UniProtKB/TrEMBL annotation:
Catalyzes the phospholipid dependent N-acylation of the N-terminal cysteine of apolipoprotein, the last step in lipoprotein maturation. InterPro entries: Apolipo_AcylTrfase, C-N_Hydrolase, C-N_Hydrolase_sf, LNT_N. It is found in: Cell membrane. Its EC number is 2.3.1.269. Keywords: Acyltransferase, Cell membrane, Lipoprotein, Membrane, Transferase, Transmembrane, Transmembrane helix. It comes from Psychrobacter fozii. The chain crosses the membrane at residues 20-39, 45-62, 69-89, 101-125, 145-163, 169-190, 202-219, 494-512. The keyword Cell membrane applies. This is Apolipoprotein N-acyltransferase. PANTHER family: APOLIPOPROTEIN N-ACYLTRANSFERASE.
Length: 527
């Protein structure tokens, strides 16, 4: 049968289905991204983590132009980060002395920049790979992974975090990390959309993965085991120092007095842990105070671990005008304590300002330069030694990086993270941060101690469960016991490589499958 030119054109270029107006579609996508925050702490409505990506999948209609698909994805990602990471406003405006209008503009620019990840996800999904749930979920994971390293990374608001305390799905964390949980959740969300479109066959892969996850939950494999040594008694000190006073020279002695007083009843514990930069001056300026605390620790058979800005005198070059590099650090002192850890991942808008050179030319924006010039620690550092154990460390923001925490956890018996989330006030930021620590504990099968200035100070077991927790914004001490564990989870051994390999393979199969189907259709139309 020979087709006319008109019939051939209709087959090659079928009439595009009528959809919603672009402006309305973009608005729906923006709102779908914005509501995702309710899936995470402190709200914990985890079904939203399925509904939100399902809406984006449903909006990306067949035969949609690449430009339209990109705009929809961009809107989703912009809504996701402008609302989900709005806690940045507190640090930028309240403590960074940035005017309201510029702070809001910076949040909007951040949202637009981070929205590009979902914009390109939608574009590639619409134009380059087969339009089905597996390719959509695979692209989702690749864009989450890229957020951990591209332009230093901003690894926040991952779908998998919504299921941290949902054992039926979080059982995948020690096997393949948070990205495996995100994959199953997004795949399930997209598959349900196809089910509603009466394409139930797409449910099979997601159901199979849910069965695997449920089996892991039921059999409860013990990837790590207790070391066999007595649990360590620990005292986590929460000083609750107001952020607007913390770095004032005239308040430094008061800060030291607060921590010394809170700790006075805790000498005798196996481990006393102070938060990030609880000593608000370098080890050189605070030498006498540090020696006094270390002496008390030695006399009471206590290991003392504290956060402190550390000046590297050995790296000072007198021939230049530059200061010696200094680091956001953790140091272990006292009985059976030794080692120094230098933070590897610095906080945007906290420890440095992106595009700071552009801001410096504007009037009245200088200030807090001391927190903008921390140096980065090496990727290869030895763990701290505490009571005969190796202690893995993560300072504040870097616990959000799965692979950084994984590398620091290798060869350790338990983990600690210290933070000063006073930067973010009473926003959702500190609680989202705690949720990430729970996921890191799950991934690595290790207990976590988390000491913070204003909260949330907590002790978390190897299953990601909060064992002890102090109230926020109170000057207090959290006491408890932590268990040393040995062995490695599959995620600790192999990291993100297995899940990234599977995602890449799925996308390649989808890409070549789409090309093959297109060629078959074109060949059939010519007959």
């Amino acid at each position: 049968m020979r087709l006319s030119t008109v019939d051939l054109q209709k087959r090659l270029n079928p009439e595009k289905p009528k959809g919603l107006p672009l402006a309305l579609t973009v608005l729906i996508a923006l709102l779908a991204g914005a509501v995702f925050i309710f899936a995470l702490a402190p709200y914990g409505v985890w079904p939203v983590a399925l509904v939100s990506p399902a809406i984006l999948y449903a909006l990306l209609m067949p035969d949609m132009s690449g430009k339209r698909a990109f705009l929809i994805g961009q809107a989703y990602g912009t809504g996701l980060f402008c609302v989900g990471a709005f806690w940045l406003y507190t640090s930028i405006h309240t403590y960074g002395a940035i005017p309201v209008w510029l702070s809001l503009l910076m949040i909007a620019i951040m949202g637009l920049g981070m929205g590009l990840f979902h914009g390109f996800l939608a574009l590639v999904f619409n134009r380059m790979v087969g339009r089905q749930p597996l390719s959509f979920a695979a692209l989702w994971i690749l864009q989450e992974w890229m957020k951990t390293w591209l332009l230093t990374g901003f690894p926040w608001l991952f779908v998998g975090y919504a299921f941290t305390e949902q054992a039926w799905l979080s059982s995948l964390a020690p096997v393949a990390g948070v990205f495996a949980i995100s994959f199953v959740a997004v795949l399930l969300a997209a598959s349900v959309v196809e089910l509603l479109r009466r394409r139930g066959g797409y449910m099979i892969p997601s159901i199979a993965l849910l069965v695997i996850s449920s089996v892991l939950w039921l059999i409860n494999p013990q990837w790590t085991k207790p070391k066999g040594t007595p649990d360590l008694s620990v005292s986590l000190i929460q000083g609750n120092i107001p952020q607007d006073l913390k770095w004032l020279n005239e308040y430094q002695l008061e800060t030291l007095n607060i921590y010394a007083t809170l700790t006075s009843t805790e000498w005798g514990s196996d481990l006393v842990l102070w938060p990030e930069s609880s000593i608000p001056m370098s080890q050189l300026a605070a030498a006498d105070f540090i020696n006094e605390m270390a002496k008390l620790a030695n006399e009471t058979d206590t290991t003392w671990v504290t956060g402190i800005p550390y000046v590297d005198e050995a790296a000072y070059d007198a021939s230049t005008d530059k200061y010696a590099p200094f680091y956001n650090s953790v140091i272990a002192l006292g009985a059976e304590g030794e080692g120094l850890y230098k933070k590897q991942r610095l906080v945007p808008f906290g420890e440095y300002i992106p595009f700071q050179g552009l801001l410096d030319v504007l009037p009245n924006l200088a200030g807090s330069q001391d927190i903008m010039s921390y140096s980065r620690g090496s990727n290869e550092q030895s763990p701290l030694r505490v009571r005969g154990h190796n202690l893995g460390t993560a300072i504040c923001y870097e616990v959000a990086y799965p692979d950084t925490t994984r590398r620091n956890a290798v060869g350790t018996d338990f983990l600690l993270t210290i933070s000063n989330d006073a930067w973010f006030g009473k926003s959702a930021g500190p609680l989202q941060h705690l949720q990430m620590v729970q996921m890191r504990a799950l991934e690595n099968g290790r207990w976590f101690m988390r000491a913070t200035n204003t909260g949330v100070t907590a002790i978390i077991d190897h299953k990601g469960r909060i064992v002890e927790r102090a109230p926020q914004f109170e000057r207090t001490v959290l006491r408890g016991n932590v268990q040393a564990r040995v062995g490695s989870t599959p995620y600790m051994r192999f990291g993100n490589y297995p899940i990234l390999f599977i995602m890449t393979l799925l996308l390649l199969l989808s890409y070549f499958g789409k090309r093959g189907i297109a060629q078959l259709r074109l060949g059939a139309s010519r007959k």
